[in-house]
């Protein structure tokens, strides 16, 4: 069972991102404030949960959370400021979207650009340790997946409904055959070494 809070008695927002390692699409992040002592036996890191259950948990989170918001950083912004800064910016935008300012941020990972006026704690593997970060991982992942499924309708050859923009072999092969779209991150290496040699 994950932990309900990091600091007792204050309003904490768990933050996590999705899509950092993808070749295409925006990066999404979420910030979630859960009720004190909130628990759920199935809530965990989104990577540990099958897709249908993620969407069930999203409904639970949106219904039970004290506050939640999602932030998005575009492909163009990723290419301009790099993916690490884009991940931090997406979290900042999620925090900005909260109705009330939290007293503390719990950040999944080991680094973060401080959000003005709000202290934070970075927690490696936090999405598997704290409910609020796990909830943020679920929202970020499902909202990004929804977006990639919509893009798939216009670009079915890249199989974004399945790979969600991640660097699968089929995705790289499609880039080799059809070229990159405006949704591909130009600052990323879109080809693995073998495909790049054959291109």
Structure report:
The chain has 199 residues and is an alpha/beta fold. It is built from 7 helices and 5 strands; from the N terminus they run ββαβααββαααα. It has a 5-stranded mixed beta sheet with strand order 3-2-1-4-5. Mean pLDDT is 94; it is low at 193-199.
The major sheet is characterized as: 5 strands, mixed
Rounded Rg: 17 Å
Distance between the termini: 48 Å
Q: For the largest beta sheet, what order do the strands appear in spatially? A: 3-2-1-4-5
Number of strands: 5
**What is the string of helix and strand elements?**
EEHEHHEEHHHH
The computed structural class is alpha/beta
Please give the count of helices: 7
Parts with pLDDT < 50 across at least 5 consecutive residues: 193-199
Overall mean pLDDT score?
94
Into which percentage range does the β-strand content fall?
15-25%
The best one-word shape is globular
Percent of residues in helices comes to: 25-40%
């Amino acid at each position: 069972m994950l932990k309900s809070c990091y600091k007792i008695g204050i309003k904490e927002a768990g933050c996590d991102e999705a899509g950092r390692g993808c070749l295409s699409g925006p990066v999404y992040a979420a910030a979630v404030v859960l009720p004190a002592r909130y628990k759920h036996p199935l809530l965990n890191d989104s990577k540990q949960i099958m897709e249908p259950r993620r969407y069930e948990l999203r409904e639970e989170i949106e219904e039970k959370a004290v506050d939640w918001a999602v932030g998005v950083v575009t492909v163009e912004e990723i290419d301009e400021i790099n993916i690490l800064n884009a991940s931090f910016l997406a979290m900042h935008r999620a925090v900005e979207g909260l109705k009330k300012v939290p007293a503390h941020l719990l950040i999944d990972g080991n680094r973060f650009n401080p959000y003005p006026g709000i202290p934070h704690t970075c927690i490696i593997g936090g999405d598997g340790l704290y409910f609020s970060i796990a909830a943020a991982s679920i929202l970020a992942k499902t909202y990004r997946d929804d977006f990639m499924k919509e893009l798939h309708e216009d670009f079915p050859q890249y199989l974004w409904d399945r790979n969600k923009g991640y660097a699968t072999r089929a995705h790289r092969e499609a880039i080799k055959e059809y070229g990159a779209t405006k949704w591909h991150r130009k600052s990323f290496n879109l080809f693995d070494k073998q495909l790049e040699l054959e291109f």
